[in-house]
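Morning run. Coffee first, then this:
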Amino acid sequence: MQEPGVGAAEIMNGIRHVRPGGGFEPNMTMFEKTQVNGDSESEIFTFLKDACEYTDGTFSSGVNYSPLRVGDISWNFEKFLIDKFGKPYTRYHPTLLTTDTISADITTLLAA
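And here it is:
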């Protein structure tokens, strides 16, 4: 839970008044925060992590959940690509994700 705030309304207020502020009105659906690691992780993230190969060679210290598991999501910009049948296709570490990489994978999935 890296984004400060308790729920969607509080987070949205942070966007409106702090980042970028000035009464900015985001044009997106804001969902509730969820846990992606640990005993309280959301079932969707358990499913995604079990289906895709781990993308990081190191394990972060200083995390605030337990238990720690190999395969945990290490950063909030990590992405999962899912095919049109709902099957996880691959997982992207944020430092390795490029427009070219994901474009090629999306093209492959659309052609399947």
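The CA atoms of residues 63 and 96 lie 22 Å apart. Good start to the day.
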